[in-house]
Amino acid sequence: MIGRLARFLLTGLANSAVGWAVIFVGLWAGLGDLAANAAGFGVGLVLSFTLNRRFTFGVTGAVRAPEVARFLAAFAVAYGANLAVLFAARDVLGPGNPLAQLPAIAAYVAIFFVLSQFVVFRPAGRD
After folding, report:
1. What angle do CA 67, 69, 75 make, to 5 degrees?
2. Global confidence as pTM
3. Of 25, 42, 48, 114, which has the highest C-beta tally within 10 A?
4. Integer CA distances (angstroms), 127 to 57, 71, 114, in order
């Protein structure tokens, strides 16, 4: 499980770097903030799904729609928790305090990992 968590974290770093690169290239190419951000997150999510599916959780075979739906739902739940923790941390630490991001990111990573492990990338034949 520790090795899988390490691969999950590496995948997160990779998709964050690629997502940021897409955002910066989009901004450089003249996209607005929202369009560049959407493009970066879109590319990051596709990369996250692909790398986590194969590299982190060792799933092979054809990608099926229920698996993609579970992934998107897990992302939405984890991101919602991230925002909830961020708002709570801001109440304690004050708006704009970068330390408020730390528990929010930790909540996102923990929830997304657990959901990925037990819901999204579960063994074949359980769809």
Report:
1. 105
2. 0.83
3. 48
4. 16, 13, 18
